[in-house]
C-alpha cells in the first residue's frame, strides 16, 4: 500500500517480473487491487495485493472493504515517496491502515519503504529523519495498553540494490525453515572449503538463506547479497533480450572463485571460495551431490 | 603516422588529470580530440567510458573550463583531449596534425547553425593541416527523443553538414556519423569503431581471432578492453548488436563482481596476476604460462545444445569474450583453453611490438 505514484507497481514489476528499472515509466496507474500469486520456493505461494493508491480507492479500503483488505495479512508493505508533497495526508492514511491491520491481522509484520531515494542527494540524513518521523507516527494511533506494532523501515530505490535488500528481509520473515536452511548451508560451505554460500530464489533472485558469516577478520563487503541479486537480475534481463536464458556462471577472478548454479528447481546457490587451490569443477560436483539433500529440506521429493 | 608525433605536449599548464603520461613521458600516445558545443556531453562520454561513471551520475558533472587531457592505456596508449565548448582551431594550443581522430559531439536536439558551422570550421582546418585525421560525429543524447524524431534529426544534421561543406568547397575530407547515448550500448559501439581506425595492428588481431574461432567452433569472439568495455577487435563474422550488447553487459557484471567478495586476508595468495607493465624480456611463452589469468563462463541454456559465454583475460587490459557451444565448453575445455593460451601469446607479442615502436 501507499499513495498514488509512490512506486508500488514499479517495484513489483522489477522484483517479480524481471523488468528493468528504465521501463517502469511505462506502467499505468493501478486500478483498485491487483492480485498476484507468486510461487516462491515451491510450496510457499505469495499472494501479492498491489493496492491502487488513489484517494478514492484508499477511502474504500478503509471503509467498505476494510475487512476484506486487512484480513489474513502476512505482511503489510507501505510505500512512501521520499519527495511526497503531501506527506501529512500520506501519514494519515498510513495510520488508518495500521489501525485496520491491528484490528484484523494483529500478527502481521509491517515494513515501511521510503522509496525513490535516488532523488535525494543526502541519502543518509534524509532517511534517518523520515525513519524517525514514521516511527513516531506509527505509535500515535495506539490505544493505551495495546502492544506497539514493530515497524521496520528501509530506504529504497529501483535504481540500486537497496530494493533487493528490503525485499530479501521481507521474504525472509515469511520462510518457515530459514534457520534449518542456514545450518545446512554452513555444513555445505565447510565441505566445499568455501568462505560463503548463499541461496537465492530462482525467479526473483532474492536471498533466502546464507551460510554462517565468515570470521570477522575476513569480512566482506556489507551490501554484497543485494548487489549480487541486482547484478544477476540485470544480466538475466540482458540474456532474455537475445532470447537466451541465463543458466549458470563460474568465475575465477583475482579476488575469488565462484560458482553460481541451480540447486533445486526453484533455488540457485552461489559458492564463494578464496582458497586458490579449489577448482570450480569440484564445486560443481559438490552442488550435484548436495542437490538431493536440499530438495528434501524444501519438501520437494 | 603515430610515430611522427612529439612525445609530450608543450602545454604543461593545461595538464590536470595526467595520471599515466606523468610517469611514462616517453610513450607516444595516440591523441583523440573531443569537441562540441557547451553541454553537448563531451565530458560525460569521457567519464562513462574511461572512469566507469554510472550514466545517471553524468547529470552532476561540472562544465569543463579548459582542455583536460585524459591518458588511458588500452591496446594502444590513448590521450583524450576533453575541450571546453568555446574552443576554436586557434585556441586549442596544439596543431591539428598532432591528432589521430577528432570526435565532434552534437546534442541531437541542437539542429541550429552553431554546432554545425563549428564542426565545418574544424573539418576545413583539418583538410589543410591533417587530411588523414579521422573525423567522427557523435549525434549524442539520442535517448532524449522518440524513435521517429531521432532518425529525422539524425538525417537532418547529416544533410546540413554536407550542404555546408559543399558551400565551402571542401568535399574530399571523409567523416562518419554515429547515433549515440550514454544510457545504452550505442556509445560503446561507436567509440569502438573509432578506436579500430587507430589500431595499426588491427588486421593481425583479427587474424588471431579468426583462427581462434575456427578452431574452437565459436560463432563470435570479441577482444575487449576490460575496463572501458570497448571492443578492440573481433573476428570476420558480422557484428550483431544484440550479441555485442550481451558481451558488454557480461563484462560489466564481471567487473562489478570482483570487488564485491574481495577478502582482505586471503587474496594475497590468489594474486598472481601479471605485472601491469611486463618488460620486453619476459615475453617468452614459457614465462607467461605460470601466471594466473582470470577467467569465467556463463552458460545461457540449461540443456546441452546451448551456448556458453566465456571470458579470459589476455593482457592486464584486454579480455577475450567468446560464444562457444556448451558441448564444446564442457567436453573439450582443455583444448579450448589451449587455444586461448595460443591466442594470448599472439596478442601479447603484438602488444610488445607496439610498445617497442612507441618507445615505452
UniProtKB/TrEMBL annotation, chain A:
GO terms for biological process: cellular response to starvation; negative regulation of autophagy; positive regulation of TORC1 signaling. Keywords: GTP-binding, Nucleotide-binding. GO terms for cellular component: fungal-type vacuole membrane; Gtr1-Gtr2 GTPase complex; nucleus. GO terms for molecular function: GTP binding; GTPase activity. The keyword GTP-binding applies. Gene3D superfamilies: 3.30.450.190, P-loop containing nucleotide triphosphate hydrolases. InterPro entries: Gtr1_RagA, P-loop_NTPase, RagA/B. Belongs to the GTR/RAG GTP-binding protein family. PANTHER family: RAS-RELATED GTP BINDING RAG/GTR YEAST, RAS-RELATED GTP-BINDING PROTEIN. Component of the GSE complex. GTPase involved in activation of the TORC1 signaling pathway, which promotes growth and represses autophagy in nutrient-rich conditions. This is GTP-binding protein.
UniProtKB/TrEMBL annotation, chain B:
Residues 1-23 are annotated as: Disordered. Pfam families: Gtr1_RagA. GO terms for biological process: cellular response to starvation; negative regulation of autophagy; positive regulation of TORC1 signaling. GO terms for molecular function: GTP binding; GTPase activity. It comes from the Eukaryota. Keywords: GTP-binding, Nucleotide-binding. Transmembrane segments: none annotated. GTPase involved in activation of the TORC1 signaling pathway, which promotes growth and represses autophagy in nutrient-rich conditions. Belongs to the GTR/RAG GTP-binding protein family. This is GTP-binding protein. It comes from Mycena belliarum.
Amino acid at each position: 500500500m501507499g499513495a498514488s505514484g509512490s512506486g508500488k507497481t514499479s517495484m513489483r514489476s522489477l522484483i517479480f517480473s524481471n523488468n528493468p528499472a528504465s521501463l517502469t515509466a511505462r506502467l499505468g496507474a493501478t486500478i483498485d487491487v491487483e492480485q498476484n500469486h507468486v510461487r516462491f520456493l515451491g510450496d510457499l505461494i505469495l499472494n501479492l495485493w498491489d493496492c491502487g493508491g488513489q484517494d478514492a480507492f484508499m477511502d474504500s479500503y478503509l471503509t467498505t472493504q476494510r475487512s476484506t483488505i486487512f484480513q489474513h495479512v502476512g505482511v503489510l508493505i507501505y510505500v512512501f515517496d521520499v519527495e511526497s508533497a503531501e506527506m501529512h495526508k500520506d501519514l494519515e492514511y498510513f495510520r488508518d491502515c495500521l489501525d485496520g491491520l491491528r484490528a484484523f491481522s494483529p500478527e502481521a509484520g509491517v515494513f515501511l519503504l521510503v522509496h525513490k531515494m535516488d532523488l535525494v542527494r543526502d541519502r543518509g540524513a534524509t532517511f534517518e529523519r523520515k525513519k524517525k518521523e514514521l516511527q513516531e507516527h506509527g505509535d500515535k494511533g495506539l490505544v493505551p495498553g495495546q502492544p506497539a506494532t514493530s515497524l521496520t523501515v528501509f530506504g529504497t530505490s529501483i535504481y540500486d540494490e537497496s530494493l533487493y535488500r528490503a525485499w530479501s528481509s521481507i521474504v525472509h520473515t515469511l520462510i518457515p525453515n530459514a534457520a534449518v536452511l542456514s545450518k545446512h548451508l554452513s555444513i555445505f560451505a565447510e565441505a566445499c572449503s568455501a568462505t560463503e554460500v548463499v541461496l537465492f530464489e530462482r525467479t526473483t533472485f532474492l536471498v533466502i538463506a546464507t551460510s554462517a558469516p565468515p570470521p570477522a577478520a575476513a569480512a566482506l563487503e556489507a551490501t554484497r547479497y543485494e548487489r549480487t541479486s541486482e547484478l544477476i537480475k540485470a544480466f538475466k534481463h540482458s540474456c532474455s533480450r537475445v532470447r537466451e536464458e541465463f543458466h549458470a556462471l563460474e568465475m575465477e577472478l583475482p579476488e575469488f572463485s565462484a560458482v553460481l548454479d541451480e540447486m533445486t528447481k526453484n533455488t540457485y546457490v552461489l559458492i564463494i571460495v578464496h582458497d586458490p587451490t579449489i577448482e570450480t569443477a569440484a564445486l560443481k560436483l559438490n552442488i550435484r551431490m548436495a542437490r538431493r539433500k536440499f530438495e528434501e529440506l524444501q519438501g520437494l521429493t | 603516422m603515430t610515430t611522427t608525433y612529439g612525445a609530450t605536449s608543450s602545454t604543461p599548464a593545461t595538464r590536470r588529470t595526467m595520471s599515466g603520461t606523468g610517469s611514462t613521458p616517453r610513450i607516444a600516445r595516440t591523441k583523440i580530440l573531443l569537441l562540441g558545443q557547451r553541454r553537448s556531453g563531451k565530458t560525460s562520454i569521457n567519464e562513462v567510458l574511461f572512469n566507469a561513471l554510472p550514466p545517471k551520475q553524468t547529470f552532476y558533472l561540472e562544465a569543463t573550463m579548459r582542455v583536460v587531457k585524459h591518458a588511458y592505456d588500452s591496446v594502444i596508449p590513448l590521450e583524450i583531449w576533453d575541450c571546453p565548448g568555446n574552443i576554436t582551431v586557434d585556441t586549442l594550443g596544439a596543431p591539428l596534425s598532432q591528432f589521430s581522430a577528432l570526435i565532434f559531439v552534437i546534442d541531437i536536439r541542437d539542429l541550429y547553425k552553431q554546432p554545425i558551422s563549428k564542426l565545418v570550421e574544424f573539418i576545413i582546418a583539418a583538410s589543410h593541416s591533417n587530411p588523414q585525421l579521422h573525423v567522427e560525429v557523435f549525434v549524442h543524447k539520442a535517448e532524449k527523443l522518440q524513435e521517429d524524431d531521432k532518425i529525422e534529426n539524425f538525417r537532418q544534421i547529416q544533410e546540413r553538414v554536407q550542404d555546408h561543406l559543399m558551400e565551402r568547397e571542401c568535399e574530399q575530407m571523409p567523416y562518419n556519423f554515429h547515433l549515440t547515448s550514454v544510457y545504452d550500448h550505442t556509445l560503446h559501439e561507436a567509440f569502438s569503431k573509432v578506436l579500430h581506425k587507430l589500431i595499426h595492428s588491427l588486421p593481425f588481431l583479427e587474424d588471431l581471432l579468426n583462427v581462434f574461432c575456427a578452431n574452437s567452433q565459436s560463432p563470435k569472439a570479441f577482444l575487449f578492453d576490460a575496463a572501458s568495455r570497448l571492443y578492440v577487435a573481433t573476428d570476420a563474422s558480422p557484428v550483431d548488436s544484440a550479441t555485442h550488447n550481451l558481451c558488454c553487459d557480461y563484462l560489466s557484471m564481471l567487473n562489478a563482481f570482483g570487488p564485491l567478495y574481495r577478502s582482505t586476508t586471503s587474496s594475497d595468495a590468489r594474486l598472481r596476476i601479471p605485472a601491469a607493465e611486463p618488460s620486453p624480456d619476459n615475453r617468452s611463452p614459457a614465462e607467461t604460462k605460470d601466471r594466473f589469468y582470470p577467467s569465467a563462463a556463463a552458460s545461457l541454456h540449461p540443456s546441452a545444445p546451448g551456448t556458453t559465454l566465456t571470458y579470459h583475460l589476455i593482457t592486464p587490459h584486454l579480455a577475450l569474450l567468446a560464444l562457444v557451444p556448451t558441448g564444446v565448453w564442457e567436453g573439450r575445455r582443455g583444448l579450448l583453453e589451449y587455444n586461448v593460451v595460443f591466442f594470448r601469446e599472439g596478442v601479447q607479442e603484438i602488444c610488445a611490438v607496439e610498445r617497442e615502436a612507441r618507445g615505452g
